[in-house]
Structure formats: C-alpha cells, structure tokens
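Lab notebook: predicted structure, single chain.

Context: the supervisor wants predicted structures on file for every construct in the current expression panel, including those that have not yet been purified. This is the next one on the list. No modifications to the sequence; it matches the entry in the shared construct table.
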Amino acid sequence: MSATQIVNSTKTTGWPRGSANAGDGLSNSINKLNAAQSLTANRTINIYPLTNYTFGTKEPLFEKDPSVPARFQRMRDEFDRIGMRRSVEGVLLVHEHGLPHVLLLQLGTTFFKLPGGELNAGEDEVEGLKRLLTETLGRQDGVKQDWNIEDTIGNWWRPNFEPPQYPYIPPHITKPKEHKRLFLVQLHEKALFAVPKNYKLVAAPLFELYDNSQGYGPIISSLPQALCRFNFIYM
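Prediction complete. Output recorded below exactly as produced.
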C-alpha cells in the first residue's frame, strides 16, 4: 500500500501518522442525527503538512476483548444492562505532497482503524472523543492535549451482534446494537503526540481509501465522499 508509515521514536518529526434502555438510546441518536443534517456545507478546514508534527511512543494500548466473538459477547451482555453501544471516532487530516491524507492506526498487517472507541454510559460524545483521543495519541509529559472537534461527518449503525455496519438503520430494525459517529478533528498547526507501541500510525492518501481491497473496510472507505463538502486549505 502507498500509505506513509510513521516511525515511532522518542523524538520523531512527521505524522506516522447512558441511556437506561435501547429505545431511549435510539431516540436520542436519531434526534442528534437529524440535527447533524443542518450542518453548514462547504466548511473550510486547514490541513497542515505531516512534517509539522512530532511523535513519541508510549505503553501499548490493548483492546478490551481478546477476540471478535468475545467482543460481541460483551456487547450482548452490556445491551441487556445499558442498551445500545455508542462509539465515536475521529478523522484527523494532514497533507503530504499537496494531497490530503487520513491518519489511521494499524494493528498487525491488515487491520486499520480510526482513533476513538466506546463511550461510557451517559458520556457526552464530544467529550468522550476527546478522552479517547488523549488515551490513544495524548502526550505523556503531563501537558493537556487540546482537541478541536469539528462537524459530524458520518453515522454508522450495527443492526445485530455481528460485524456488518451500515450508514442507515435498516427498516426492520427497531433496536440497533451500536451507533458509531464520526467527527472531523481540526489539528493545530503544530503538535506533539504519542503512539502506543503496539500500533503503527500511518497516513493514507484520501484517494486510496476508495479501494476496499486494501483492507480499510466500508467505514474508512466512505471518508472521501463524506469529506467532499469541505474546502481544504493546505497550509
């Protein structure tokens, strides 16, 4: 693949890169989704070069579940107690050679993901994403990270306790098992980040994400279309 891999080092320049029940959670999510439709089109976003950012490493960040079946079993258990799972992910952009790149976390050789994860019960989406971004890429020197969360750029739904997710709620589904919201994150001109040792941070060209054969998956592959309403200024 042609994605740029960021090498983790102590000092490296460049980017490697609570609802009580499911019904309430679904209603709240639909209300937020409807509100998101009124977002201003053609927003301007500044994109800075990959070389503006400095990266270090930190202790590994492990998944909560040891396997895919274990993940869905935990989802079943939690659904019975707290309802639909809510997840958030951040889309972080840089540019290289005048082309926009999306920052992805790579685990192993074929698994790519956007930084983010599950929200706690009752946790605000924006504040939760800031927490998750800090856990994943936050500095280790005690300096508080300032994350600028912009617009919602995608909503994905998991109808069942299975891998498939869709950018809509299937008509026959009244209680989705997960709602995942994607946010655009405006990076500052310069910043220091730390990447968990068990991940690689890569910068994937936006045009390359259309190709599902790279293993990016449907959510990541949908980003070029989701970002087409933004005006990018290359700083």
